[in-house]
Amino acid sequence: MHLAQSLATLRFDPSSKAPMFKQLYEAIKQTVLTGKLAPGMQLPPTRELASQLGVSRQTVLNAYVQLTAEGYLSGTVGKGTFVSAHLPLAQETRADAAGQKPQLLRPLSARGRHFTGPQAALNIHAGSLRAFRIGMPGLDVFPFETWARLEARRWRRPPQELGYGDPAGYRPLREALCAYLAASRGVHCDPDCIIITSGSQQSLYLLATLLLGPGDAAWVEDPGYRGISASLRAAEVEICPVPVDAQGLRIDAAKEACPHAKMAYVTPSHQLPLGVTMSLQRRLELLAWAQAARAWIVEDDYDSEYRYTGPPLASLQSLDQAGCVIYVGTLSKVLFPGLRLGYLVLPAGLVDAFVQARAILDRQAAIVPQIVLADFIVEGHFSRHIKRTREVYAERRAVLLEEIGRQLGEHLRCGPADAGLQLSATFRTKRSDQAVARMAAEHGIELRPLSQFYLRERDAQSGLVLGFASIPAEEIRRGAAVLRAVLEK
User: Of the CATH numbers 3.40.50.300, 1.10.645.10, 3.40.50.970, 1.10.10.10, which one belongs to the domain with range 3-97?
Assistant: First the structure.
């Protein structure tokens, strides 16, 4: 296509607030940057282009002047206007326009490559809520009106903490969490040892990068939470998958396979995804190993508030006498994931280093949600919300168990279901859980394959992880009927 014809196809947006010459300037600039106008190519005279575009000559003249000032065009009176001859970007992108795959300026660093690829990918919630989404609390029972009132009250008299604050977090929130954790989970802590993070995933990344170096080894539960594996991989840590049985992490297998580990990551109160609880004997064995090996234990207590056959269990950290347990908590499962607030309870000797690292990473967590959450806890709304949701989730859990027994018992074998927001179930006959999940998605329900939680494919069990906390009872019943139809196909 002739250059004049190419420019004549440019279109303007009459509804735009941008002046006409600015629109023309932007259009010509983009054709240069994408390589459609090659270096050295002559542009039409201003009168000719103005006539073709149906605009005033002054509009074209103003656009040419701006492009020349910025170096895209060059020219002299009597010779014409040209695309500047020395634009390597234009030549580079011309190759892209010819069909070649765009290339990075240079490859990612060796460290950067550890952040990419399928092994580092974390699941997200996409689309509207549906059965049987996991890791999601019931938004239909969250007291949004109360939260909005507390936030509005703060905005009527803006808090003084709106500047750059303490990277460790809002002090009254840390004090409130300290009191709550001591009473409900037996955690030994001081407000000075609590650091507010932007969710537990950030907590795990800080732990992996500050406490371990490239080549150091860490025990992780297998099956287990993919987020810790992604963080350890990004830190270039040797990941040691350890099997889990009915009593939790197998300490004997871990010692045999990876005796040189410097960290162990565990979910002792409610193992993700199998749902087992670590026995007292295993807890004591793990603590003894950590003390003897001078290793760290990371206790991820992600949803221990929700136990349906008795009070919440005491934390592993409450048994620690050597200062080797780091307690990781999150508000995502109690309130809602979009709040992006979590916390670390650290041994005193680690606090200064973690506060500095927290500041480097993103200065501080958003302050207004911290302030509102502190009010929410101190004024009693938090404890009432936990009590209320524990009752609602217990009802929804009972419905799911009933439907598994009534509609799905011939297909699924249920695992422990006395705690948490979801439960796991294995297939009674050989099936591909990923194929089942894909087919279920086509029928409007959301399933998480159990095999996705395993690091070692040879050990992976085929099954499903089914969420119930965020799903109303009728939707659970409908979802179970759909799942039965899918399994019978």
Answer: 1.10.10.10
The CA-based angle 202-203-204, given to 5 degrees, is: 90
Can you read off the two tokens belonging to residue 264? 């162990």
CA separation for the pair 422, 132 (Å, rounded): 9
* Strand arrangement of the beta sheet that strand 42-43 belongs to: 42-43, 80-83, 73-76
Q: Which CATH class, in words, describes the domain spanning 118-125+158-383? A: alpha beta
Angstrom distance (rounded) from CA 130 to CA 470:
9
Q: Which two tokens stand for residue 485?
A: 């139809």
**Which tokens go with 387?**
């009590």
CB 420 within 8 A of CB 136: no
Report the candidate in 72, 46, 81, 63 with the shortest Cα–Cα distance to residue 12. Answer: 63
Q: What is the 3-state secondary structure (H, E, C) of 152-221?
A: HHHHHCCCHHHCCCCCCCCHHHHHHHHHHHHHHHCCCCCHHHEEEECCHHHHHHHHHHHHCCCCCEEEEE
Q: How far apart are CA 460 and CA 431, in angstroms?
A: 12
Residue 222's closest CA among 284, 261, 286, 274? 274
The length of the chain, given as a count of residues: 489
Do the Cβ atoms of 448 and 134 come closer than 8 Å?
yes
Can you tell me the distance from the alpha carbon of 480 to that of 403, in angstroms, rounded to the nearest whole number?
6
Per the DSSP assignment, residues forming a β-bridge with 248 are 245
* pLDDT digit string, tens, across residues 162-211: 878 899 999 999 999 999 999 999 999 999 999 999 988 999 999 999 99
Listed by start position, the domains of the chain span 3-97, 118-125+158-383, 385-488
Q: Which residues pair with 298 in a beta bridge?
A: 265, 326
Structure confidence by residue, pLDDT tens digits, 399-455: 999 999 999 999 999 999 999 999 999 999 999 999 999 999 999 999 999 999 999
Instruction: Count CB neighbours of 17 within 10 A.
Output: 6
Residue 419, strand partner residues: 307
Q: Is the pTM of this model over 0.85?
A: no
Q: What token pair was written down for 203?
A: 């907590």
Query: 385-488: which CATH topology?
Result: Aspartate Aminotransferase, domain 1 (3.90.1150)
